[in-house]
Amino acid sequence: MLLIPIVALKLASTGWRMLRYYLRGEEYVRRGPSHLVLRVLVAPVIVVSTVVLLATGVALLALGQTHGTLVGLHKASFLVWLGGAALHVLPRVANLPSILRRRLPGTPLRLGLVGASLVCGVLLATRTLPAADRLQDNLSGSVGFDER
């Protein structure tokens, strides 16, 4: 639950960059497109698996389920997401130090948006903690951890 606002901000900012590129925004066109494989294959897999992962997680929490098809879909979407995220992140690791040293315009706005999404995530996680605790208790009891 903590990650939902943060991921929503990331999807929105990435969608904005993609839209600006395809609408021929000058600064976005100057930077050029990302690698074709990342645009056509990896990005859609990451976006779809992220949405499915978070949606099934929310559904599991809302329904209080610890077994069944929805749990399997949640686990499978995580594995797909992990593979896509690895393909997306690992090629960029070597460039990370130079990326972090860059001074980008709009940094205060970006930090403010990230901070606000983090606060929203903390509030959402705090509000749903009782439901998550009940779900964890149900799961622990079903595998014999809470036997007395």
Q: What proportion strand? A: under 5%
Q: Helical segment tally?
A: 6
Beta strand count = 0
String of helices and strands = HHHHHH
The percentage helix is over 70%
Query: Distance between termini?
Result: 31 Å
> Average pLDDT value?
88
Structural category: mainly alpha
Radius of gyration, in Å, reads 19 Å
- Whole-number tally of structural domains: 1
The dominant shape is globular
Low-confidence stretches: none
| Main pleated-sheet profile | none
Give a structural overview.
The chain has 148 residues and is mainly alpha-helical. The chain has one domain (3-94, 107-125). It is 79% helix and 0% strand. It contains six helices and no strands. It has helices at 3-22, 26-31, 36-63, 69-89, 96-101, 107-142. Helix 1 packs across helix 6 and helix 3 (36-63) runs antiparallel to helix 4. The two termini are 31 Å apart.
What is the gist of this entry?
The chain is mostly helical and 148 residues long.
What key attributes describe this structure?
single chain, 148 residues, mainly alpha, 79% helix
